[in-house]
Amino acid sequence: MDRLAAPVVQFRGVTKKIGSKTIIDNLTLDVPAGCVFGFLGPNGSGKTTTIRMLVGLMSPTSGDIRIEGQSIRTHFEQAISKVGAIVENPEMYKYMTGYQNLMHYARMSPGVTKERIAEVVDFVGLGGRVRDRVSTYSLGMRQRLGVAQALLHRPRLLVLDEPTNGLDPQGIRELRDYLRALSREQGTTVFVSSHLLSEMELMCDTVAVINGGRLVDVRHLHGQPTAHTSATEELITVRFETDQAETVHALIPGSYVEGSSCVARATRADIARFNAQLVQQGVAVYGIIPMRQTLEDQFLAMTREGGVRHD
Ligand SMILES: Nc1ncnc2c1ncn2[C@@H]1O[C@H](COP(=O)(O)OP(=O)(O)OP(=O)(O)O)[C@@H](O)[C@H]1O
């Protein structure tokens, strides 16, 4: 992946209000070209709303989204022409075969040839079943057909909302394999949402975490932190060993008490500053221990506040 390439998607100060409720709050985020990008958040955090705006099903209240530099506000047609998406359930005619469904969509997309249909069918591994009726397909096969359809016009960006929902482990593995192949072999950027961190960890190069409509973290999973978290600003998680855990918790925003210690996520500089303040207040700190958390632990810690539901 070329890390210097211009981002495929740029969210800039995107806010969505419905009535008096702010669903998405000032989202600014870059999606690098050619990666599998995970959009992770608990239920109700705003993933679907963001995706609906990204694929043009809903307009932001303020802010803008650019797709390959084209604004969805001022150049909607050009911006959206670069996107293929499955949002909610893909519309399929169950009484027709997979192939007939693809032909139907191909007729609506200029320039899609029979060769292209064969290519996408092959790519998603639907070959043996494409001449069968969709009514006989498993959920996984319907989803492959949905992805094949979304890829027909060679989009630069493929957007999938919670694509692993309802798939069995084998289906999830296959989906993961072909999404990764799509980004690696064809340079297509894949934007995929989920509330399941374990899947994101295996599937994605980068994960953005959203909670309560706000971006809380962006993490590059196979190496250095992204631009959102420069090395000096990177948050680390540490355990303050102390017999006054509540006092430490009261001092450090976003921390939580666990047994006789307090777990906090902060930059290195802030951890040193908090420690100095604790010493000044006469709180005995016996140790500050870096925690090697799994992304799962970090995700739970980041989304702990506000009593959100995890499943
Ligand atoms: N049309 C609407 N009117 C009022 N509130 C809405 C509307 N659409 C979404 N919301 C609220 O916005 C918040 C975010 O919803 P959204 O569906 O984007 O979240 P999500 O992260 O996709 O969650 P899930 O995984 O459960 O679908 C939720 O609290 C939801 O109730």
Account of the 3D structure:
This protein has 311 residues and is an alpha/beta fold. The chain has two domains: 9-220, Rossmann fold (3-Layer(aba) Sandwich), CATH 3.40.50; 235-302, Alpha-Beta Plaits (2-Layer Sandwich), CATH 3.30.70. Helices cover 32% and strands 27% of the residues. The protein has helices at residues 47-54, 76-80, 98-108, 114-123, 139-151, 169-186, 197-203, 245-251, 268-280, 295-302, and strands at residues 9-18, 21-31, 36-40, 62-67, 70-71, 83-86, 157-160, 189-194, 206-211, 214-220, 236-242, 256-258, 261-266, 285-290. The chain is elongated, with a radius of gyration of 22 Å. It starts with 8 loop residues before the first strand and ends in a 9-residue tail after the last helix.
Keywords:
single chain; 311 residues; Alpha-Beta Plaits; 2 domains; 6-stranded mixed sheet; 4-stranded antiparallel sheet; binds adenosine-5'-triphosphate; ATP binding
Describe the secondary-structure layout.
Elements: E1 9-18, E2 21-31, E3 36-40, H1 47-54, E4 62-67, E5 70-71, H2 76-80, E6 83-86, H3 98-108, H4 114-123, H5 139-151, E7 157-160, H6 169-186, E8 189-194, H7 197-203, E9 206-211, E10 214-220, E11 236-242, H8 245-251, E12 256-258, E13 261-266, H9 268-280, E14 285-290, H10 295-302
Parallel strand pairs: 3-8, 3-9, 6-7, 7-8
Antiparallel strand pairs: 1-2, 1-4, 4-5, 9-10, 11-13, 11-14, 12-13
Helix pairs in contact: 3-5, 4-5
The protein binds adenosine-5'-triphosphate (ATP).
Adenosine-5'-triphosphate binds at residues 18, 21, 23, 41, 43-49, 195.
